[in-house]
Write a structure and sequence with these properties.
It contains ten helices and 13 strands. By secondary structure, the chain is α/β, with parallel strands linked by helices. It has a single domain (7-253), classed as 4-Layer Sandwich (Metallo-beta-lactamase, Chain A). Helix 5 runs antiparallel to helix 6 (127-133), helix 6 (127-133) packs across helix 10 and helix 9 packs across helix 10. The chain starts with 6 loop residues before the first strand and ends with a strand. Keywords: Hydrolase.
Length: 326
Amino acid sequence: MDVGGGVWSVPVPIPGNPLGYTLVYAIESPGGPVLVDAGWNHPDAWLALTDGLAAVGMDVADVRGVVVTHYHPDHSGLAGQVRERSGAWIAMHEADIALVKLFRDVVTDGTHKDFQSDMLRRAGADSHEVAEAVAMRPEPPALPDLALTDRDLIDLPGRRLRTIWTPGHSPGHICLHLEDADRLFTGDHVLPDITPHIGIYPYDRSDVDPLGDFMTSLERVREFGPIEALPAHEARFADVSSRAAEICSHHEEKLEHLRALMAADPQPRTIWELAARMTWNRPWDQLPAMLRGMAAGEAAAHLRTLEVRDVIERTADAPVRFVIHS
């Protein structure tokens, strides 16, 4: 789709995922197109990307670079193949590059299953749930060439595309402000109808607050005002500021629901127990193992924010338990 101003969107499928596709954006420049994200690493996705670019007169071999909004496989997966075909650079925020390096190391040395199993057990998952969850793991993405930091300008001749660091969905998630057209590529940070997954991994970390970071990042995006958003899923939409405010309110409501749930049953509970009592898009016992793991990560993020706000505290038990302040 021609979204105007020398920007094109290509829907790249995510096999077996209810999101359906990742919107990869191609930005024209005199030095060749730069892609925002690349899509999932799968033959069908590669065909969709290359055919989609060809349909608007672009050859993947001419791609100048790929800016990855975050390391997740539906955004970074095909970046390595684009680089192999074109010689393009791959850019990502330095915080997510650190995670890519970590994932590549643990996959190489075979410790990733032990790491994941231990994380799930410490959260309170039983042995059957652990075995199911560790069976699924996508391959890590290609290692980027360029490390980005907040406010960096992207190598895009004749245009101004600036990095806006928006941690939360991942530690190094970025939005990209196309300053010459005043539009914002939002990745997964701000989507028109759904909210991105915000989790903590390992679940029991006490040195980070990704939900707090996410909500601070949403406030930063609100400062752009009612400009058009070009997200990585669903469809482009007007007024990124209003949507960011709605997402902030959604998480405040979720935090209050979790606080009330804990107040109604004030005994110490594990992350897994509390996740099972929270409201998801389907009942807990109908969630497959991978989605239970993600739900536990999101529960952990909300618990951590309540802890930072001094509403709850963790006990010294193993697995870790949380209790509301009396």
